Amino acid sequence: MLFFSRFQELSEEKGMSTSAVATQLGIPKTTVTYWRQNPAAAPKTEQLLKIAQFFHVSTDYLLGNTDIKNPPGDLSAEEVAKVALFGGAEDVSEQAWSEVEDFVKYIKQKYNM
Fold first, then answer.
1. Which of 7, 58, 70, 103 could form a disulfide with 74 if both were Cys (CB 3.0 to 4.6 A apart)?
2. With contact defined as beta carbons under 8 Å apart, do 21 and 54 qualify?
């Protein structure tokens, strides 16, 4: 049931139900019900790609092949920095990130970078 668990978790993180996500992506609600009721079920390739793009995660993450939502090559420079500094980008407040950016500017100015 790993796929559906991840799909449900990501939907909740976005503040949406799994049905609402499916509707937005053009996936029938009956398909979501099937995924929920069949632990070994996984979406068709086209659906899997749509879901991965919607949530900005890898297909491997959705299928349970990895616990890393985005491979490093898929992360923006800001996301990589947040992971390096804070262990992830999810819980970094705008104020905290703004302070980090200000500090970086200060260091660049100090060392003429």
1. 70
2. yes
CB burial of 7-41 (b: ≥16 within 10 Å; e: otherwise) equals bbebbeeeeeebeebbeeeebeeeebeebeeeeee
Same domain, 6 and 53: yes
Angstrom distance (rounded) from CA 93 to CA 30: 38
DSSP string, 24-36: HHT--HHHHHHHH
What is the rounded distance in angstroms from the CA atom of residue 62 to the CA atom of residue 38? Answer: 16
Q: How many independent structural domains does the chain possess?
A: 2
Q: Are residues 8 and 38 in the same domain?
A: yes
Q: pTM for the whole thing?
A: 0.63
Per-residue pLDDT tens over the stretch 57-113: 888 889 988 887 876 666 677 777 777 787 766 678 889 889 988 998 888 899 887
